[in-house]
């Protein structure tokens, strides 16, 4: 038999945690959806709209942090996925506007979101380079490949394992696609 006071406290903690969990998942799903829209806008060079949506996401993330705290948020897979997708969009914007990837201020984003978002961003660079090539902007494709190569060389030092290793291996495959694209452009244009 369970002590009545213990049982009461367990129920209170459990239901409080479940309530928080549902709130975090709901808000995280909204963030994830908006982050995917940001990436879609960036692929189409709609930078003004994408930047505005990134600001909205930052406000939403900060609100979650203020309500639940970073440690509580990191217990929820939905939040982790949303933070990673946000980072992918933020880093993708920095990459296509030739800015250095820097720390996001005023948010407590963990290393997994940064590294996972960076690895996923390499895949977005492939799509972006494909769009640039289709528009005849072949020099831009070479710049994108060089940028991706530089980022991948920096990520090599991490010797990632588990989930992040899978992300890194996918990014390496995307880099190969960029290398192949650059090679084929050189063959066709002679440059």
Question: Would you write up a description of this structure?
Answer:
This protein has helices at residues 4-43, 47-68, 70-73, 77-96, 111-134, 138-156, 162-189. With 191 residues, the protein is mainly alpha-helical. Helix content is 82%, strand content 0%. It starts with a helix and ends with a helix. It has 2 domains: 1-109, Methane Monooxygenase Hydroxylase, Chain G, domain 1, CATH 1.20.58.2140; 111-191, Methane Monooxygenase Hydroxylase, Chain G, domain 1 (Up-down Bundle), CATH 1.20.58.
Number of helices: 7
Average pLDDT reading: 95
Radius of gyration: 20 Å
Low-confidence stretches: none
Name given to the CATH architecture of the largest domain: Up-down Bundle
CA-based shape: elongated
- Number of E-type strands: 0
Helicity, in percent?
over 70%
Strand residue content: under 5%
Query: Class of the largest domain, according to the CATH hierarchy?
Result: Mainly Alpha
Number of structural units classed as domains: 2
Structural class: mainly alpha
């Amino acid at each position: 038999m369970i002590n009545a006071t213990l049982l009461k406290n367990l129920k209170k903690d459990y239901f409080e945690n479940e309530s928080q969990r549902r709130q975090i998942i709901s808000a995280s799903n909204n963030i994830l959806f908006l982050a995917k829209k940001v990436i879609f806008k960036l692929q189409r060079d709609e930078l003004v709209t994408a930047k505005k949506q990134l600001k909205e996401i930052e406000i939403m993330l900060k609100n979650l942090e203020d309500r639940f705290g970073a440690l509580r948020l990191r217990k929820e897979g939905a939040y982790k996925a949303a933070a990673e997708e946000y980072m992918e969009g933020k880093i993708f914007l920095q990459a296509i506007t030739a800015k250095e990837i820097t720390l996001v201020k005023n948010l407590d984003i963990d290393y997994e979101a940064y590294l996972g978002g960076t690895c996923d961003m390499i895949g977005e660079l492939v799509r972006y380079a494909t769009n640039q090539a289709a528009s005849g902007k072949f020099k831009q494709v070479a710049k994108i490949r060089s940028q991706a190569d530089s980022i991948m060389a920096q990520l090599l030092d991490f010797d990632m394992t588990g989930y992040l290793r899978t992300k890194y291996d996918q990014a390496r495959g995307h880099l190969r696609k960029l290398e192949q694209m650059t090679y084929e452009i050189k063959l066709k244009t002679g440059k």
